[in-house]
Design a protein that fits this description.
Number of helices: 13
Shape: elongated
CATH topology of the largest domain: Immunoglobulin-like
Distance between the termini: 50 Å
Structural class: alpha+beta
Oligomer: single chain
CATH architecture of the largest domain: Sandwich
Radius of gyration: 25 Å
Amino acid sequence: MKKVNILVLIVYLFSFTNLFGQDEKQTYNIKFIKSSIGVKANIKANITMLNDTLYIGEYGAWHEKEGWASYISDIEVRNKNNEELELKKVDRLKWLVEGDIIDRELFIEYIVSFPYALPDFNWPSGPRSTASFYDGKGMVIQGESLFIYNSLKSKTYVNFTLPIDWKVSTPWNVVSNNHEYGNQSLEFLSKNVIVVGNYKEILIEESGFSSKLVLLGYKNPNLEIIEPIYRKILKHHIKVVNNKEKGKYLMVWFPDGEWQTGEGYLGSYVVIKPQPPSVNHIPFWANTMSHEIFHYWLGGKIDAKDWASSQWFSEGTTELFANLSLIRNSIITEQQFFNLLQKHLVLYQSFRYKWGTPYEEISLIEAGSNKSEYNAAIYDAGTVTALCMDIEIRTQTNNAKSMEDVLKILYAKSKSEKYTIEHVIEICSSLTGNDWTSFYNKYINGIEFLPLSESFKKAGLNLIISQAGVHIKNDENAKGLELSIKNSIFGKH
């Protein structure tokens, strides 16, 4: 990989002083300049101060003693009267401003270095999904590494000045055609990734929702293979939740040795994969894309009141609809869909039983308190439970309602309230006209094993469970409601 260094200068224009003091607005103007001496950023900003403390984001660069602050230097702060104030480092990610902060306004200047963005940089602890990537053409920047701030809630604007052949990709709102973004909280701006440079991107727009897809570092990114699949997935998800609002999403792929992982942000996702997507592994990478974009709604817009107790529902339902988007759009075959489900079923059975005896006496509600340890409960049991709920809703309503209706209701109410699992059960009860308390007590808040064979039978499927594994087959005798439910789930109306 050819080594190309750039110098990044971020310069703020100080012309909106009075406006900022009144409305708690702040602006960062970012000017990128190529150079052969490294990757740096000279940042000048006008920020609103609610107290006397400055911060930098805590997510990422954990191998460094002071996190992202390790790449910050030459900090200068001045008040409205252009008087220089003293800074005192009080924590690895925190500074105390000593002096008179007039009208809550602070002018701050500092240098940010990007050693991890160089092609020959060896990331000490493995994948760079929380940091950056640079292949000489495009650079991925983790937002939190850029901003020193006082309040994440303040309305923030970011202005870019780019080299003539460069562009920028972000999930941020566009304010003007002159590379001005934001009019959003700094929390959203910083808790995302951005891409700058000279690179190819895919822009997909559906019903007011737009998503950009960028692949960096691959000899042949196969964008022509990805675009039609991603477009179908996006259209499917928008229909499922009945999205009618404008929104933006950025998905970025890049390689990092043999590492294979990913990292999600508020409106973006980074995929670390040695090889680019290809026709040979569609079920794997298409599922990843579909799963993560669905989280824009479930887990993002549809936000839970309690994170831990909702993880099985958020991840499991997301995984279910990720797989459904693939089978419904003929992106994968029916057997490939069965294969995906069978893996979840095997791990669910393994979670609940070992050699035919009870194993994990922990509910799905409790499993979220330790997501890494109870991964099978969150993702696999969650997926299986969500599917059984879908089948049961369809059965009780003569296939008139489904889990899609649950999600539509949750999304419609997401602006005014955060959901709880109890709320989900209430919606199921309301849709079907039956009390779902028993289902909740047995399989969600309890530890009983789902009646899988019986449930799948209602959807025209035969399920064979044994110590040798789990197999799904079509029920050749299915008819009437069973066949109707199966066809609806598979998108064969």
